[in-house]
Amino acid sequence: MTADDLASISLVLVYSALAVYVLAFIAAVLGLSARSRTAEQADDLALAERPAQAVLNPAASAAASGASSGSAGRGTAVLERLAAPQPTAVARFDRMSTALVAIAFALHVAALVTRGLAAGRVPWGNMYEFALTGTGIIVGVYLAAQFWRDLRFLAAYATGIVAILLGLATVNFYVAVAPLPPALQSAWLVIHVFVATLGTGFFALGGGLSIAQLLQTRHEAGGLPRARFLAALPSSETLELLASRVIIVGFAFWTFTLMAGAIWANAAWGRYWGWDTKEVWTFIIWVVYAGYIHARATRGWRGTRSAWLALVGFSAVLFNFTVVNLLFKGLHSYSGL
Amino acid sequence: MSNPRSDRPADHVDAPVAPAAPVNPRLSPVGWLRFLWRLLTSMRTALVLLLLLALAAVPGSLVPQRSSDPNGVIQYQRDNPDLFTVLDGLGVFSTFSSPWFSAVYLLLFLSLVGCVIPRTKHHVDALRARPPRTPQRLERLVGFTTRTAAGEPERIVDRGRAVLRGLGYRVERYDRGGELSISAERGYLRETGNLVFHVALLGVLLAVGVGGGFIYTGQRVLVQDTAFTNTLASYDSINPGRFFDESKLEPYSLRLDDFTGSYEFDAASRTWKPVDFTASLSTREPGGDWTPAELKVNHPLQIGGTAVYLLGNGYAPEITVRNPAGEAVFSGPVVFRPQDANLFSLGVIKVPDGLDRQLGMIGLFYPDPIAAGNGALASFSPEANDPILTLEVYAGDLGLDTGVPVNVYQLDTDGLEQLVGRSDALKLGLGDTVDLPDGLGTIEFSGLRRYVALDIHHDPTQGWVLLAAVTALGGLLLSLFIPRRRLWIKVRPGADGVTLEYAGLARGEDPALERVVAELADRHAREFEPVGPAPAGSEPAESAPEGSVGPERRIEP
User: Distance from A106 to chain B by nearest Cα, in Å?
Assistant: First the structure.
């Protein structure tokens, strides 16, 4: 099989993965709407049985704060069963979306492998390949996180963002397999870029959790009456905790990216830091997330404000990946763009 | 960064304080200083400074920077002269050395120092201290759970001590009345890592700041079969640091023996993509012999305390100009600067002496010429294949005798007489000789050499920067992923057996704490026979029927 054949197979796999991501997105949205219906029924039930409601509130908030006493923490399992009397639809759509995401991910990985084989190198040497790998890693992080916590309420977010990014990149930036220019021929391409994408994957998940946190905060304050699915999501405090833990991992990866990039820059360009546009934005992202971590330890900045910082950070990541690559002049201008 | 109360862990959050009635005490000058210092070193200020730092860096990516893209700055000035004046006044073309950017990061680091010092002192005290006294009422703490056991209280508490110590906790025995207890604490490395991270960041700043004075970077174009010796006069340009000392240059030599660029044709974009650049050099250390060395992109050559980088390459046609008597008045390779990816290049030949008039020529070089329509030429590939050189010729005063430095790559044609224009330019293949106009003599394209553009750097502090950065990363990982927590085991002898109590306290965020307390209780109590039915509340939080994990996990039925 020639390199061209492999590249064609890779492209077919990408389009297949895209189609399945869209299906997964639909299933995920149906899952959210099923959550809304379930929440309505739970409200009816709560109206009928006041005591159930009384159990619900202290337990939920205490368990979420992580500082609950033992008895309140144990209420969680009971509470969830009360709050979700007819969960079959939610569970069905969640299972469906997860299965579809897993299938799409398998196609996605196959597309990456064939692309890499076609090029005879790691498949992240230009903008298209970087998008292909980056979206794959976002999905990978999303799926891996399910083994840690049940984050399937983020399925619509994850599949939506990945379908859009992958679709745009494939339509606009597709390039034929090309050899690496000498400046990219380095072991650091494997490490630096891969860890950067890994960090991006965690930041993406953290961004989704922060969005959910912001929505949930408003919902808990009595806002967003129509977004009933929020009632089936964890409390805003729990979401914040999850977001921060995911983002902290991303931050560690990003710190490494910055340093590995500096080491590579020293070998390739003769200086470890030169305020190239990409370096500037990597630095900005790092500082914003450092700000996020500090905000979470600063009175008055926890909760909503820190969540906004997480979103500013993820917007900067997206900006760095799209606008900076495409419009800004710099040493990171990728080949074949 | 510092907390309002320094005896709290870094990520501790105080309960909201009720706003007090505003009072404005009169402050002495020292009081003001203290007030400002407190303000500067507060967490909130550090956070605002961090966000300002991110914001202040943005302009540095929007407009070209003098440090990384000086030509871009000149271009910007040409394109937007009015806007340029305003922006230049603000210093955005040197964002990262501008007063406002420097002010933000210096304040940030000052704030950092003011926060790290008291925290280090406090942490050193904490490292020496024993775990604190067991609280009287454990039931108010995280993960509180009780068990019963039959056995000798002393033996049970000793066992608890051993279990906790085995888990890496620092332990202390406290007894109060009939109650025996173990107080345990772990995760001191979290704060250590945090402090190391912040101090290492200061180290990076210091190493970069001090190192900047010792750095020099020089540029040199090296033509095939010529040599360069590392002395100040040999550089085409050099940017020395403040403490640069010319006598410290080690006079090693480099010679370019050969240069190969390999390319692959990309059918889709119909362009040649570079695959490899290799410069074959000979190097000679003072007093040594010539030894071969290879220089590639991404693989700098280390020699004489410097690193040599391959940054560019091109063609240098050999030109020989003779007067009408046939004597060579100019002879040698002329560096032509590439104008496109196929190495179509532009060069300038200046012949000030030996002819009746001073001559200046603007040459276009096509390594692999093809017709591009309208009689114009282009280069089809970067590889030399019957190359062609075309020349426009000017005569007059070249301005080389005024003592003012003149760019060798440019010809100022103002005031010069054009003898040959672009349309009827002299056209030479390799080895060709043609007559110069007005019987001035002849010009020969006598040979073709390659050249490389080298960057030569000396940076004695980069190892220190790397060390500080790696230390920072290590500290960061410790501070982010090591939980700091306290655990207690209380042994209370009663009429019918011993009651065991377990609880924990998070110092900083610690979502796993409940599970840890439950695991401790299981592990410790398992070794003893329980007494009768378990008392109320003895069921550990985690052993709910679903067998699921922490409190923040939603359990899908």
Answer: 26
Residue B12 belongs to some domain of the structure = no
pTM confidence score: 0.81
**Residue-wise pLDDT tens digits, B384-393:** 999 999 999 9
Residue B552 lies in a domain: no
pLDDT, tens digit, 9 for 90 and up, residues A101-142: 999 999 999 999 999 999 888 898 888 998 999 999 999 999
CB contacts of B544 in chain A (<8 Å) are 74, 76-77
- Which of A67, A70, A77 has the CB atom closest to B546's CB atom? A77
Pick from A69, A249, A283 the residue to mutate for testing the B interface (most B CBs within 10 Å).
A69
Query: Does residue A306 form part of some domain?
Result: yes
Looking at the structure of chain B, the number of domains it has is 3
- A111 domain-assigned: no
Residue of B nearest to A271 (CA): B457
More confident residue, A27 or B38: A27
Burial class of residue A45 in the structure, from the number of CB atoms within 10 Å of its CB (0-12 exposed, 13-18 middle, 19+ buried): middle
In this structure, the answer to whether residues B111 and B145 fall within a common structural domain is no
Q: Domain residues for B521? A: 130-187+483-530
A6 within domain boundaries:
no
Q: Contact A68/B142, CB-based, under 8 Å?
A: yes
Tell the burial category of A65 from Cβ atoms under 10 Å away from its Cβ (0-12, 13-18, 19+).
Answer: middle
Structure tokens given for A333:
């201008």
The answer, yes or no, to whether ipTM is higher than 0.95 is no
In a domain, residue B440? The reply is yes
Per the structure, the count of domains in chain A is 1
> Do B282 and B417 share a structural domain?
yes
Q: Quick one: B287 and B178 in the same domain?
A: no
| Residues B151 and B160: beta-carbon distance below 8 Å | no
- B99 falls within a domain: yes
Whether B499 and B379 map to the same domain: the answer is no
The answer to whether the CB of B389 falls within 8 A of the CB of B428 is: yes
Are B457 and A299 inside 8 Å of each other by CB? Answer: no
* Tens digit of each residue's pLDDT (9 = 90 or more) over A10-64: 999 999 999 999 999 999 999 988 888 877 776 666 666 544 444 444 444 444 4
Cα(A324)–Cα(B9) distance, integer angstroms: 38
Phi, psi of B390 (to 5 degrees): -115, 145
When CB atoms are compared, the residue of B67, B511, B537 closest to A275 is B67
Taking the CA of residue B543 and the nearest CA in chain A, the distance in Å comes to 9
